[in-house]
From TrEMBL, chain A:
It comes from Streptomyces fructofermentans. Residues 80-271 form the ABC transmembrane type-1 domain. GO terms for cellular component: plasma membrane. CDD domains: TM_PBP2 (cd06261). Belongs to the binding-protein-dependent transport system permease family. It is found in: Cell membrane. This is ABC transporter permease. The keyword Endoplasmic reticulum does not apply. Keywords: Cell membrane, Membrane, Transmembrane, Transmembrane helix, Transport. GO terms for biological process: transmembrane transport. The chain crosses the membrane at residues 21-41, 80-103, 115-136, 148-171, 192-217, 252-271. Signal peptide: none annotated. The keyword NADP does not apply. Its main location: membrane.
């Protein structure tokens, strides 16, 4: 997050304006990190400590049974594998689909592209609750109910709708001279896409890939409905096992939340450099 | 060089993508009616009384059914709530599952024809005789899906009821006598208020507040009143003596400081924790807290039924239901039969649950014995009055917000009763 803007050429006001911004950012960062810290602290607390001291007290020592019990109780390794499988497939497929769509709309400039884009925006605004029953019936008819493939297909389409919308806007402003130059050199549409457009937009595609992965990772409702067998379930659905009808196990829920969010954070950190490279397409080289 | 590297990357990505796709096709095993597997789902934690008893039941089942494998999956409560109608309507339904009792849940599924009628099995295997009258209410549903009469669609292994949990150490510390009658209870609460202690733990944002109020009304009510309110056998007038007494007394208790005015926004978890931490001397709530209090309370504590009231909140617990599409129904019936056996029922009782058909003599833990004896007392006098939010869909939220207004003083008892009457009349099924 690079919210700090330096007004060029006015050093005095720059110094003056920098500290408030720094303080504001620090406060903002604290607010972002605090919930995560509370989760982390409670994850290593014993239930008795939690009941006695409440959520804000510091634990006396590391209590890792909550993490361990949860891991074994839901067979967390299997859930991780499922989540990686689903989120990974969705991220890759959705990016490929978005590129193909956006190429046609942004650079190919097909007729009626405004309508097509409007349709994609509409698809984006559709709440997932509205999709539950249609998707359930379709997947049952197709024999895909309770398979990971059904979730992959649904989310590929959902994420690609957003990806198409975003990429079409980005590629709409793609430097024409590069495309024209390639055309003059005799490249066909396919070669322009893979040799010119994709390499130049790679930073944007990288960002999309990361976003699709993290978003799909955190999806709850559709995986909850579509993945019935415990063997097929994702991490975020597995976390729901702990929410009882009337009681909650606060420490184990925190342990589970920590386990659930860690892979997404790791993934995020690994690809962080892709993100900082920015969402805009590189200029004419 | 660069292009070569890129090509390798592209191929690698394609291969990865392909394998991911192939792997995610991987099978979902549908039920097979080979009589060799029992697919079983429930959503009780492994350390809860039910979880422990049912694990023992699974062992017993596998011992008595050699060659049959029990495929148990622990589910989340929310997942079952949200997806049960869809799962049961597909080929992936389990053979036996735990499901929430009530008109909006088991009743609805029975009306949609997604559950197996268990009446014949219940009569043949004697389950109906083991289950007492007010527990039975949530097992039977008529053609409209309304509980209380009709066919058996579910069998509960346990029951739940509300009671007064009290912290003996705090009573002693403040020199307050342990109450046995309603008069003594209010006297004890007065004594606590004098010492600057709020006597009752309450949660205005959740079920607890309305349960206090309903309990107060119940102490002036009888079975006919409950049946007309909960089972629509007659018209419910919220300005009758019982409801008026309940609302006015509740408002009065807030004014007197028995219940904190600040409790309008608290959750049940907060109230429970304030009892566990020894801040609140009294908590009136359900048997579902019992196991946690045994594990976490660091003081001497006891329970008693709400004094001078023939009835209290409670009902049969969640149900075993057999989906219509279950592949191995006979195995499912056998499993239910094992969970109703004395051995499993006694185990459930000894672990802090409230079994429906246990032998009180076989319960060794003295506190658990008290829990079950109190339940048996209630069952004998037909004293389970269900929960106030049951009759009407969406009534829970109305009761929560109206009772909150009563706590904060934004509504008079009269206005409270008017609002509740309106919501009730609107939602009650027309016959």
């Amino acid at each position: 997050m690079s919210a700090v803007r330096r007004p060029a050429g006015r050093p005095r006001s720059a110094v003056l304006s920098r500290y408030p911004v720094l303080v504001a950012l620090a406060v903002g960062a604290l607010f972002m990190v605090l919930p995560f810290l509370i989760v982390a602290v409670n994850a290593v607390k014993s239930p008795a400590e939690y009941s006695a001291g409440g959520p804000l007290s510091l634990p006396d020592g590391l209590y890792l049974d909550g993490l361990k019990d949860f891991w074994e109780r839901v067979d967390f390794g299997q859930k991780l594998l499922n989540s990686v499988l689903i989120s990974g497939s969705v991220a890759v497929l959705a990016v490929v689909l978005s590129v193909l769509n956006a190429y046609a709309i942004g650079i190919g400039r097909i007729r009626g592209r405004a309508w097509v884009l409007a349709f994609f925006v509409l698809a984006n605004t559709l709440p997932q609750e509205a999709l539950v029953y249609p998707v359930y019936h379709l997947s049952k008819e197709a024999g895909l109910y309770d398979t990971r493939l059904s979730v992959v297909i649904v989310f590929t389409v959902i994420q690609a709708a957003f990806g198409t919308y975003l990429l079409a806007a980005v590629l709409g402003r793609f430097p024409r001279e590069i495309v024209d130059a390639a055309r003059i050199d005799g490249a066909n549409a396919w070669q322009v896409l893979w040799r010119i457009v994709v390499p130049v937009s790679r930073p944007t595609l990288g960002v999309l890939l990361v976003f699709f992965f993290v978003w799909t990772w955190n999806e709850f409702l559709l995986p909850l409905v579509m993945l019935i067998s415990n063997d097929n379930q994702t991490v975020s659905v597995a976390l729901g096992v702990l929410q009882g009808q009337r009681l909650m196990d606060a420490t184990m829920t925190n342990a589970a939340a920590l386990l659930g969010v860690l892979p997404a954070i790791v993934f995020f950190l690994v690809f962080q450099r892709t993100l900082t490279r920015g969402i805009a397409v590189g200029a004419v080289k | 060089m660069l292009t070569a590297r890129r090509r390798v990357m592209a191929t690698a990505a394609a291969v990865l993508c392909g394998t991911l796709l192939l792997a995610s096709c991987g099978g979902s095993d549908s039920g097979s009616s080979d009589g060799k597997t029992l697919r079983l789902w429930h959503y009780e934690g492994p350390d809860s009384a039910m979880g422990l008893a049912w694990n023992a039941a699974i062992e017993e089942f596998e011992r008595t059914h050699p060659g049959v494998e029990v495929k148990f999956e622990e589910k989340g409560f929310e997942q079952i709530q949200k997806t049960a109608p869809m799962v049961l309507n597909s080929g992936d339904a389990p053979d036996l599952m735990e499901y929430n009792k009530g008109n909006a849940t088991a009743g609805l599924l029975s009306k949609q024809g997604l559950l197996t009628d268990l009446s014949a099995e219940a009569a043949e295997r004697g389950w109906d005789r083991k289950i007492s009258a007010s527990v039975r209410t949530t097992s039977q549903y008529d053609a409209r899906g309304v509980m209380g009469s009709g066919k058996w669609y579910g069998i509960p292994n346990y029951a739940e009821y509300t009671m007064v949990f009290y912290n003996k150490d705090l009573f002693e510390k403040h020199g307050v006598a342990e109450p046995r009658t309603f008069g003594e209870l209010t006297a004890a609460m007065d004594a606590f208020v004098d010492k600057g202690v709020t006597p009752l733990a309450n949660a205005g944002a959740e079920y607890m507040a309305q349960q206090y109020l309903y309990q107060l009304a119940l102490s002036r009510a009888d079975r006919g009143w409950v049946d007309s309110y909960e089972l629509y056998q007659g018209k419910s007038d919220f300005h009758d003596a019982a409801w008026t007494y309940g609302a006015e007394t509740f408002a009065d208790w807030v004014r007197k400081g028995y219940i904190s005015e600040k409790s309008s926004g608290t959750k049940a978890e907060d109230a429970g924790v304030s009892f566990i931490r020894g801040e609140s001397p009294i908590l009136f709530s359900g048997s579902w807290w019992y196991g946690r209090f045994v594990a976490e309370n660091k003081f001497d504590w006891g329970t008693f039924l709400w004094p001078d009231s023939a009835m209290t909140l409670g009902s049969g617990g969640n149900l075993w239901v057999v989906p219509k599409g279950a592949a191995n129904k006979d195995l499912a019936y056998d499993f239910i039969d094992i969970t109703m056996s004395r051995r499993i029922q006694n185990l459930l009782g000894n672990k802090g649950g409230v079994p429906v058909a246990a032998d009180p003599a076989a319960i060794t833990d003295p506190r658990a014995k008290g829990l079950i004896e109190n339940f048996n007392t209630l069952a004998e006098r037909d004293g389970l009055a269900f929960y106030p939010d049951w009759p009407v869909p969406g009534f829970y939220d109305v009761l929560v917000s109206e009772t909150q207004k009563l706590i904060t003083g934004d509504a008079t008892p009269d206005a409270y009763l008017d609002a509740v009457q309106k919501a009730y009349d609107k939602g009650v099924p027309k016959t």
